[in-house]
Amino acid sequence: MQRWPLLAGAALLAACAGCASQKTPATADVAASRAAVDSAAIAGAGELAPDEMQAARDKLQRANQALAAKDYRTAENLAVQAQADANLAQSKASAGKASTAAAQLQDSIRALRDEIERNRSTQQQ
To answer: Within a 10 A sphere around the Cβ of 125, how many other Cβ atoms?
Structure first.
């Protein structure tokens, strides 16, 4: 009969260890998603991918709330989703900037070709 308290204590200790082990990954995931959101914001995603940035910020906020409520599984899931949304926003921002740069380059090339053509026709006269 003295094994019962020992087994109950061991089970409680294992459960507490499981809770503590969930906290660490959740905290790390929330920190990583915060960094991803910050990075996307710096890349201009707030202007070029506002929907994705808002989704990332909302999920990050909910992950922080879940972390504060010690709901580590929910915090971890929301943090991973927030990071994915932030990465998507940053990719869209980068793609938008690249498209704009490509269009500007095409305009410059067109202007140079027009100038070359004008110079050729002037030299031929």
So the answer is: 4
Q: Is residue 97 part of a domain?
A: yes
Closest CA to 55 of 36, 33, 81: 81
What phi and psi, each to the nearest 5 degrees, are found at residue 69? -85, 5
pLDDT tens track for 46-69: 999 999 999 999 999 999 999 999
In a domain, 29, yes or no: yes
Contact 78, 62 (CB under 8 A): yes
49 falls within a domain: yes
116-122-123 Cα angle (round to 5): 90
Q: Is the pLDDT of residue 12 over 50?
A: no
